[in-house]
Each structure stands twice: as C-alpha cells, then as structure tokens.
Design goal:
Elements lengths: L3 E3 L3 H7 L4 E9 L6 E9 L5 E5 L6 H14 L6 E7 L15 H6 L9 E6 L3 H6 L6 E3 L8 H8 L6 H17 L5 H8 L6 H16 L18 E5 L5 H31 L9 E6 L15 H10 L5 E7 L7 H6 L2 E5 L4 H11 L7 H6 L7 E6 L4 E7 L17
Parallel strand pairs: 1-3, 4-10, 4-11, 5-8, 5-9, 6-7, 6-8, 9-10
Antiparallel strand pairs: 2-3, 2-13, 11-12, 12-13
Helix pairs in contact: 5-6, 5-9, 6-7, 6-8, 7-8, 9-10
The structure holds adenosine-5'-triphosphate and magnesium ion.
Length: 415
C-alpha cells in the first residue's frame, strides 16, 4: 500500500520518496469509538504550503502546530528550513523541555520525549518584565520606526487616515521619509508632528499615541527581524504582551521582510539552476500563526493583512509557507481560506465554520463533511486532514508531542 504523504505531489513522491517529510499522526480507520490508528501520516515539509488548522476550543490546534514545528526541526532537510512561531499566547517557550509527563503515551507511539532548541525572542524593551517574573527568553528583537508607513501607524493606532489626526500623521511621516529616508526615530516623529498647522488637540492626541508606542518597548535603531530566518532554527516570537493591532504591526513587517528576502534568494537560486547547480540561498521559511483570525480577519484590516494575503497568494514562488490556526475558520479572511492547500480540522461544531471548510474542499469529498466530522472519535488530537494535493480526506489521530505543551487547560482541583 502506498504511504500517505499529505501535501506531496506525485512528482516529488516519485523523485524524493519520503525525504523531507515528517510523521504528524496516524490514519484513523473506522468510526467513532471503533476507530483505530492505522498507517502513519507523512507530511510534506519541503515545498511551500498554506495550511489552516481549525477546531473549537481545546481540540488541539496549538498542540498540532507545535507537532509540525517539531517535525520541521527534526527533519532530514531541517538545514534548508527555518521555522517562526508567532506566539500570541506565550506558550511555545515550553518546547525547550521534553514532554516527560506524556512518556507513557509517547511509548505507545514508539517516540521518546525530546527537548527542542526553540529560541524565544521578546521585544527589547520588555526584558525587565520577563526577568522579574522569571520567564525564560533567549534574545530580543526591535523594529525600526522609520520602516513603518503612515498607513501602518494608523492601523496600529486604530485611527482613520481621513481624520484630522490621520492627516497630520500622513504629513509628518511623509515629510520624514523625504528628509531622512529610513533614518529617523520616535523623537524625530514627535518633533515633526509639531511642525504643522493643526489644532493643539490634534497634535496632542497624536503625540499621545506615539508616547504609547514608545511604551510598547519594541522600537530600536534597526529592525532585527532578519535573525528569525537563520537556517535550521526555530524562532518563537513572543508577542503575547500586545494587543492584536501591535501584534499585527510586528507580523506585517516581519512577513514583508521575509517575502522580500526570499524573492531575492529565489532569483539567485534560479540563476544557479540555469547553470545546472542546485543551490539553496536562503532557507524555506515556515511561519506559524496561532489565533490567525486576529491578523487576517474576514472583516476589517490589520497591519498584517496585506502582507499575509501576499504570502498566501504568491508565497509558493518565493518559497514561504504559512500555517494559520484559528477556532473559527469563518472568521478568517476568505482569500486566506481559499488558498489553503492543506487543512487540519479538529472538531468543529458551528455550522458556519463547517460550511467555510466545505466550500474549499467540496470538489473531492466523497461524503459530506459533516459525516466525516461526526465519525471522529471524541479523543484529544483527532481531526480531519483535507489534502488538496492528493484530493483526499484523511481522518487522523495527531501524534503526542515530543516536547512539552504549555497550553493545557488549567483546573481548580489541586490545592
Ligand atoms: N494529539 C494530541 N495528543 C494528545 N493530547 C492532545 C493532542 N492534541 C491536543 N491534546 C490535548 O488537548 C489539550 C488542548 O490542546 P490545545 O492547547 O492545542 O487546544 P487549542 O485547540 O489550541 O485550544 P484554544 O482554542 O483554546 O487555543 C492539550 O493541552 C493536550 O492535553
Ligand atoms: Mg490554542
């Protein structure tokens, strides 16, 4: 029987076999409590993908995303990959620890608990807070305020570009761009704001916004986002201290930079290919975003919307992969949904969410989606994989994690 390899096309299957795949779970055969684990499900890590991970609360989305990150790290091609986890909940630092508490369950899968070299990055201005609370981190990151457009700021501050404040913002930023290019800081912005003839209250209001921005603790002389694309590394970018707009600003900027870098690298790789060389100038980047509807909502825009839409639309060519987890696929931007070539759906119950899924994959469903979902046993980590590459649907039991998952549900039973 041919092996199940999700996301891998026929050509790659023939040429590479299972090289560059990882095992994420086992095929579930049978229905409900009769269902049993059968063959392993291999997952393609070598090609760029757009993946959605869905399921209602506590069904295993964050956990499964960690599983994919483990496979990327442990893979035989990990040197050509780099993994970035956008950590909205501050939970992925625990991948540094082996999942000893699940040793029994892991044994059943013939897997050993394993610690991963996750590098946790926090904003430069937040180190004290982390140290006070004894929260582990490895390094810091900054962004350069001069790299943000007036539009980016307006979205992060949630102000209308056509309002008085918006107009002042636009003028100040465009003046700074003209005068200094990419060489100005928050102080320069604050000075520029006062140089125009606007109501005192408008000026004050905008100044206040930039004062808040200073407190975010993320701005520095340079953007140090390049460090997240180091070969073979897994970076956990902790943005849990921010609201969704500031998170969006960081993700938007990071996504933009990676896309540009990868496009340049791809050009070089193509030139090499013309000379018969198979080179890899820069790793293929996998970015994983938990709570993805915050960044790419179906209504409204965040500072990350444009960039992430470009990732899903053109990401195959430069070689970037995006994994988006959300409780409610119906709340995710429809273009992001429709571009997914792999879906992992844990249990979903809301009709609109099931419909959202069904719409993408209906062409090759043998039964209706509800039938598949109803047949899933009520166990942690079960779900459906819908693979556009092979046009198949697989019920799956996702494997237990090798590394510790910090996103468990707290309870009040202990003293
Ligand atoms: N494949 C699995 N094997 C074993 N246990 C699992 C598996 N997947 C999930 N679990 C269990 O389910 C719990 C909840 O999973 P997870 O934190 O991923 O939920 P979630 O879908 O991200 O929820 P939320 O929407 O609240 O963020 C985990 O802490 C873990 O105990
Ligand atoms: Mg979660």
């Amino acid at each position: 029987m041919p092996k199940i390899s999700v996301g891998r096309n026929e050509e790659d299957r023939e040429e590479h076999g299972l090289k560059g795949t990882g095992i994420i779970g086992k095929h579930l055969v049978g229905e409900n409590e009769e269902a049993h684990k059968a063959n392993p499900i291999y997952f393609d890590l070598a090609k760029p993908h757009v993946m959605g991970v869905f399921g209602k609360r506590g069904t295993g989305k964050s956990y499964s995303m960690g599983t994919i990150a483990e496979e990327l790290q442990g893979s035989d091609i990990s040197d050509n990959l780099s993994t970035i986890i956008i950590d909205s909940m501050g939970i992925y630092w625990s991948m540094k620890r082996p999942n000893d508490r699940a040793a029994g369950m892991l044994e059943d899968w013939d897997i050993k608990p394993e610690a991963f070299d996750a590098k946790v990055y926090i904003p430069e201005g937040r180190t004290e807070e982390f140290e006070e609370k004894d929260m582990p981190y490895d390094s810091t990151f900054t962004i350069d305020p001069a790299e943000l457009s007036a539009q980016d700021w307006a979205m992060a501050f949630d102000i209308d570009m056509n309002s008085e404040i918006g107009i002042l913002l636009e003028r100040a930023i465009s003046k700074l761009d003209d005068k200094f290019g990419e060489n100005y800081d928050l102080d320069d912005i604050n000075k520029a704001i006062t140089k125009f003839d606007f109501d005192e209250s408008t000026v004050k209001a905008l100044e206040n916004r930039f004062m808040t921005a200073e407190e975010w603790g993320v701005f520095g002389d340079d953007s140090s986002l390049d460090q997240f694309t180091t070969r073979g590394e897994m970076s956990v970018v902790d943005v849990s201290m921010y609201d969704e707009l500031v998170r969006g600003l960081i993700v938007g900027l990071l996504g933009e930079k990676i896309l540009r870098q990868r496009m340049a690298a791809r050009r070089m790789e193509e030139l090499d290919e013309m000379q018969g060389l198979d080179t890899n100038e820069m790793p293929i980047v996998w970015m994983m975003i938990d709570e993805a509807h915050e960044f790419l909502p179906n209504k409204g825009e965040t500072p990350a919307t444009d960039t992430l839409l470009r990732w899903v639309k053109i990401g195959r060519e430069p070689g970037v992969s995006l994994v988006m987890a959300t409780q409610q696929p119906a709340k995710l931007h429809p273009n992001a949904l429709s571009q997914c070539d792999i879906l992992l759906s844990h249990r979903l119950t809301a009709k609109q969410d099931i419909d959202a899924l069904g719409e993408i994959m209906q062409t090759y469903m043998r039964h209706d989606l509800e039938h598949y979902i109803d047949a899933l046993p009520d166990r942690a980590g079960t779900g459906l994989i819908l693979d556009d590459n092979s046009e198949r649907v697989y019920p799956v039991q996702m494997r237990p994690r090798k590394s510790w998952h910090a996103g468990g549900t707290p309870d009040a039973f202990e003293d």
